[in-house]
Amino acid sequence: MKKLTMIRSAAQTISLMVFVSILWYTAYPLKGLLPSGLFFKLDPLLMTMAAISERAIIPGMMFAAAMLLAALILGRFFCGWICPLGACVDLAGGIRKKTLKNSDMLRKSRFIKFFILTVVVFLAVLGYQAAWIMDPTVIAGRAVSMNVIPAVIFAVDKVFIIAVQSLGSHGGAVYDVYTNLRSSFLAEGVRCYQGSFMFFICFLFPLVTAVFVARFWCRALCPLGALYGVTAKLSLLRRHAEKCGHCGLCAAKCRMGAIFADGQKYDPAECVLCMDCVYVCKVNAVKFSFDREKQSEAGQPGGRSGITRHEFIAFLAAALMSFGFDIKGKLFGGTKKTVIRPPAALEESDFVKRCVRCGNCMKVCVTNGLQPVFFEAGPEAVWTPKLAPEIGYCQFDCNMCGKVCPSGAIPHLDVHKKQGIKLGTACVNKGVCLAWHDKVECIVCEEHCPIPEKAIKLESEVVDGVTIHKPYVDKDLCVGCGMCENKCPVRPIRAITVDSSTAERS
Predict the structure, then answer these.
(1) Which residue stretches of 306-463 are H helix?
(2) How far apart are CA 361 and CA 388, in angstroms?
């Protein structure tokens, strides 16, 4: 029996289920048993690059450091046993019927990920946090939160609705099940996120490439894998093949191309401990051990170890490219304060460095008001969260976004303190307001204002014997929650909008 591979597969499956479960219950109110940002805090690439770019110690760094320490003992175990994207890649790779030979070109492609890691590190040193672009945990997390979960909820919801309608008076039992699901499994409801198809494409790419080349993403492109690979070079757990017959079967079957043609030497930076080689070997020569005396020498083809000339040139090129950016991290003209950020978010320049684009805050937003930014706040702020009042407002008694943020880009405030934080200030456009422009009675914005003292006041005017109440904003009381903009009946341009220039940032 292939006990080790079975254990690894079980660990992968459990890890993926836990990952999806955590994200599923990252909803209002929080019900999950594990911290919602756990997997992101365990990601040393995200936490380290965010800390370096902001020059600060951030929440989650202790978890990330623990993972790197574990890698010093076990090697690149995260990639083969825990990584949620790695599990999906292996599932997609199962479709492939024919094993692709590990060619020299494929072996050389692994240096690309070290080039990417170098770029990410240098950008962080220069003040720009780019780890989120290709981090596997973020890619998987966004896809699950903003594509998979909404699609599953939508499908299940529609199936039950159709079933209840079709059964008519006989559908009582089905309706009872549906009601129970609406209060638990389907409680979140169907959410929509602007541009979520891009998140799905980013998730789909590693899976599609795995159908043609085993773990191509992990071999060639993953910067987190490169970081673990650097650590794995020093790991205590190593593969050794004392009685190897040099048949080359393990090298041909290795999903990472980590084993060289002789079947004995391997590169620990590429090995994800899948354990396939243990059972492929016909003479049972392959074992993994902490006994360094019996371990095979790791190195490049030909027995050489250490950095190659090609790697050095690639790293140097990455460094030179990185130095082309502004050293203060204000790329392409600097950050722009044109969007409404979550309550008490860090100052804009620090926020875009600290935010890891995991999507947790958007997933947990009870009104679906937090949406991904594209270029309206500058290229460096892509996929950070913004409040879009036309979609949803900031719930007055909700502080969930701060609770689920794994990096501290959105501080965790108690509800009372959060209620007094300004996201901006509402402003009435008298040119389109029904009461001001058309002399039609409308006090929707005032009615919905959640501030107990009402930040939206009314002044009266008698028009043709009829009293019209015209809204105006008390700027001292308004916190810019966006409820008035969300509820305003005027379309397509709302008669009252929130200006973020007065926002209070941490």
Answers:
(1) 309-322, 348-354, 360-364, 400-404, 415-419, 434-437, 444-448
(2) 13
pLDDT tens digit sequence for 337-366: 579 999 999 999 999 999 999 999 999 999
State the virtual CA torsion across 328, 330, 332, 337 in degrees, nearest 10: -170
**Structure tokens of 461?**
């005017």
Per DSSP, helices labelled H in 75-171 are: 77-81, 84-93, 104-109, 111-125, 136-143, 149-167
Q: Cβ–Cβ contacts within 10 Å for residue 47, how many?
A: 26
Q: How far apart are CA 196 and CA 360, in angstroms?
A: 14
Report the chain's C-alpha Rg in angstroms. Answer: 27
pLDDT band at 30 (very low <50, low <70, confident <90, very high): confident
Residue 205 has pLDDT above 60, yes or no: yes
Domain boundaries, the chain: 3-140+197-322, 331-417, 425-502
Contacts of 235 (CB under 8 A, 6+ apart): 71, 72, 73, 74, 75, 76, 268
Determine the Cα–Cα distance for residues 332 and 127; give it in Å rounded to an integer: 13
Q: Which residues pair with 469 in a beta bridge?
A: 460
The span from the CA of 411 to the CA of 474, in Å, is 27
State the pLDDT at residue 328.
46
CATH label, 331-417, candidates 3.30.1370, 3.30.70, 1.25.10, 3.30.2170: 3.30.70
User: Tens of pLDDT along 76-89?
Assistant: 999 999 999 999 99
pTM, to two decimals:
0.88
Q: Are 188 and 76 in contact (CB under 8 A)?
A: no
Nearest Cα to 354, choosing from 376, 381, 328?
Answer: 381
Cα 99 → chain centroid: 32
Q: Point out the least confidently predicted range of 95-104, 200-209, 331-340, 481-490.
A: 331-340
d(CA 407, CA 54): 11
The single-letter code of the amino acid at 398 is C
Give the CATH architecture of domain 425-502. 2-Layer Sandwich (3.30)
| Rounded-to-integer distance, Cα 427 and Cα 497, Å | 6
